[in-house]
Amino acid sequence: MRNFNNWVKSIIIRDTIKLLRSEREDKNNNEFIVHDLACGKGGDLTKYEKSGITHFIGSDIASVSIEHCKERYGNSRKHFKAEFINADCSREIIRDKLSDPNILVSFHSIIVRTMVRNASECLKIGGIFCGTMPDSMEVMRRLKESGTNQFGNDVYSIKFDKTYDEMIAAGISLFGARYNFHLEEVVDCPEFLVYFPIMEEICEDYGLKLIFKKRFDEFYEENREGDDNLQLLNFMEALEKYPPKDRERPMGKPEDYRHIREYLQNSSGQVINTIGTLSKSEWEAATLYLVFSFRKVF
């Protein structure tokens, strides 16, 4: 699951930077600056380097994460310059703290008006604001379907203080509602619902126009076929091979692969020895996320 998430982020980072490079009038200008508004411990540094950036700016609310990010950058000898800002980008205006505001912004955490303002003010016209986030519509659909205040499986779990009906009856705003989110090996912390249509309106207020919004499964289907993408998918081991080789155990339970067994049985006479997939529980977790991209137009 972690590898699949990283594959999605690798593709969006690489393709966004490739797009912006292709649009440059000066093809000899290789300078490219990325600002990650929620850089954490620097888990995406290698992705940025492989995309050929020349300057990285990492911001995060947690000082310990910034220190880890600095350490990871120093130990790995990345071929780009870097600066680090310990700041809460959802509350502080950070443009004045930057050495150069003409940057692409990558983001994958809580989004509020101040955060979007920071993204917009740190971009020049034509720059791109992209990232990943939980799909609030899907979260609320599953909450309503559960009939309780929580839902999930053995890979992820989400818990609210109230049931869907109780939230509606109490008039609780679905934008900013808090919930606890656990995702195996990736997330275990409070999150806040971000209703995408409202986020899009806020982005429009700050000159950011939507390019696309897709769920992870949609993004995967559209990007899995290219040679480079397929090679990266295999290199990162983003999908589990099923059936597993001798002595290897599948990541999930036997019932988690029923959909794959049915697919192999109905493959219209094609001989398919193995197929790349996620377990049913992992697909359920992956389809909670969406990837988005906005362009700065004014």
From TrEMBL:
SUPFAM superfamilies: S-adenosyl-L-methionine-dependent methyltransferases (SSF53335). Its EC number is 2.1.1.56. The keyword Methyltransferase applies. It holds the Pfam family mRNA_G-N7_MeTrfase. Residues 1-297 form the MRNA cap 0 methyltransferase domain. It catalyses: a 5'-end (5'-triphosphoguanosine)-ribonucleoside in mRNA + S-adenosyl-L-methionine = a 5'-end (N(7)-methyl 5'-triphosphoguanosine)-ribonucleoside in mRNA + S-adenosyl-L-homocysteine. CDD domains: AdoMet_MTases. GO terms for cellular component: nucleus. Keywords: Methyltransferase, mRNA capping, mRNA processing, Nucleus, RNA-binding, S-adenosyl-L-methionine, Transferase. It is found in: Nucleus. It is an enzyme of class 2 (transferase). One of its GO terms (molecular function) is mRNA 5'-cap (guanine-N7-)-methyltransferase activity. Its main location: nucleus. This is mRNA (guanine-N(7))-methyltransferase. It comes from Euroglyphus maynei. The lineage of its organism: Eukaryota, Metazoa, Ecdysozoa, Arthropoda, Chelicerata.
